[in-house]
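=== Structure Prediction Worksheet ===
Name of assembly: unnamed complex
Input type: mixed (protein and possibly other molecules)
Chain count: two
Listed entries:
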Amino acid sequence: MNRLTSPSRTHHARAAFVSASALTLAATVLLAAHSPSARANPLDYFGFGPRGLSMGSAQVALADDITANYYNPAGLADRDALQLQIGYTLIDPTLTLNGNDLGVDGVRGFQGGLLVPGDIFGHRLAVSVGVHLPDERVTRLRALPEAQPRFALYDNHPQRLVLTTSLAFELVPEILSVGVGLTYLSDTRGRLDVTGEVDLLDAAGTELVSAVDVDFSAVRYPSAGLLFKPTRNLRFGLAFRDEFDLTLDIGVVVTGDIVTNGTTTPTPLVEGARLEVSSRNSNLFSPRQLVFGVAWTGDPTSPNDRPCFSLTAELGWYQWSRMKSPTAFLTTSLDAGSLPLSIPPNPEPTAPDFHDILIPRIGYEQQVLALPNLDLFVRAGAFYEPSPAPTQTGVTNFVDGDKLGFGFGLALGFRDLSDVFPRPFWLDLGVSYIAMLERTHDKVDPADPTGDYISDGHFVGFSSSLRFEF
Amino acid sequence: MSAQPRSKHLLAFIGRLGVPALLFIASLPACAALGGEDGGADNLPDRGLSGWLPTATATAPYTLGTVDGPALGGPSALVDPTTSRLVLWFHQRDTDGTFSIYRTSAPQVPAPLPPAPTSPDAEPAPPATFTFDAPTLVLDDARDPSVVRLADGRYLMAYLDASSLVRLATSADGLTFTDQPATGLPTDARASPSLVLSAPTSQTPSPTTSPVSLYAVAAATNALVRQTADLDFAFSSELTVLAPGVDCLDLEGEPEPCWDEAAITDAEVRLATSPTGRPLLRVFYAGRTSSTTSLGFAASHDGVTFSRYPFNPVVDATISATAPTTVRIDDAYHLFYAEARNAASGGIVHLVSYPPAAADNF
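=== Predicted Assembly ===
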């Protein structure tokens, strides 16, 4: 609730803030413990929650609920209501090469979170946790050959759990807020150690003992935001999300003796031979992002305390040029003593040569109904996302295309229905359609194994949520 | 709003509505464990270069011919647009050592895929092959036919005569051929002539500069050469477009013998269209080392500069494989080639590839 229309706000909230903060942090730890393989951000592609989905994800200057964990953490300090939100998002892609659907997996899962406000010396403060919990798989790791066609941004990246915690503080009451957030992910490092004797001539004489050691080391990447409201109706938002690059590092180490007559009387040929095979790849890259937006809002016209309209536009910069190849790089070394054995080096994966992009977004929200117990808002938005991937004319097939997205949605606010809900609770619904524009990939090499192809496709998205305010 | 009422309302909410929701959320890890199929790799483009399934069986290794002879070879396949039949011209080595060209055809019925094995250990049954009519003699003292269909509906054949010189002939029905006068044809021996006809009505530019391109293997160099002509059949001078393989490297980057280092023995060049509408020339060819003959693939955008497929050979035959010819019928690619067991016996092998998403169209 905006402070100008919330005279009931008291300093007793500080006590609630402290206790609720502890609860939030405990929940964060609990959830983090259950997400050892969390490693990506489908929110980058489809937004967070139905409001963002329906407004083209133009939310950096508007988000003031748990979705601000992603869009702009500073927005978390914009309202004083304790919020609990749970919803479901479904994105169904149809991405084709030469008109044939590749069957790229959709994104579907629960989205929600908790926002706990408070204040310190008259300055609003909020902590929050937001989560995207896929209901199909918690995470997926795979490294495809670089020549295998895949929709590079949608094949593996969105198949992840996302957990973000944020802290927001109002520097200048009703004018300037800042926020910071952390998103938790994990690297994957694993090693298979094999020791024993290898019989050079008879497999039956080989004895090996193996051990597996896999480590999901935590990775956190920061985000930050700023919300500036020079007037009652004008809002500027600035959000920064740092780059992260998660690795899948799997290795096999075989040490032991190479012998003959292993089944009877082993005769060592080489003692202490060693074979190391290591596969390392960038399993997920998310670019550094800087998003700036402006919004013009109308004064509230009903007790719901929401602006009667909001018009917003934003521009985001995405530093895709630093993306590394998602192809596994295999390194091998063999020390076979006096035996004339060697393993040829593998070529390094071809650089993907992605480039930075600017994404413009616009969104609009309008209240169309204000009944005693019901408010109705409608929303719409659009964005244009140029592809960071070059046309695939060489050996790689990291397919992507420009995207044009449209969204539409509505929000129903229910008031005074029960003493359980002293404030409105909201049902948000959003749908989106994202067209991936047709793109022609003509290969330089006429004998390329994949050959020329045309890529295009679309996404159909739906999102809903219930948001309770207390 | 004070903290105490806010907490009270939150607890009331959890008590009345939140418990079922939280129980539902708690069940989600079980749902996540179910997982899903790993999507994203369905219907990948396939150019018909690999994944060949032989239609041979132990008792019928050839779709045409038998192991006892007579020796068949030099197949040239074409789908007749008027009859929708698969037509095959090939040569037969007669008992006196001379060759004759025959024609046969089969209903253009896509060979059905065999049923999947009922157990993992069971050998899958080979896919069905075509059922060809009894062959009809087309030309005596001729071999290595290559046939294309002209815009006016006539058939144009290039073949080798008894002296291994390239000749041309035309026919209205694909059965009765008459000599087609031409100038500029080579006066010394060639092997495996292959005709490419650019479509004059095509909206896309042809990679051939003239309506007719004639490819053949030059006996002196064991390389693929090209001549072009307008429909007056006045051929240009020869240009080498694909020479025997050189500078092959093994995995360690060390020089190794190329699979086609000794000679290119046969080649069939096809004008194709890529899925983006680009014309290109596909060539399946037989390459030879000192001891083996295998089949490989190369392609060109201009008909002059050919690039080899990086995973050659595509058919690593245990017995000599020569004279490949390919057609696409619906979404399946068919490869025929000649297998010679000895000078007197051999037949025509049929391989088929059923990619989920056929790419090149020809």
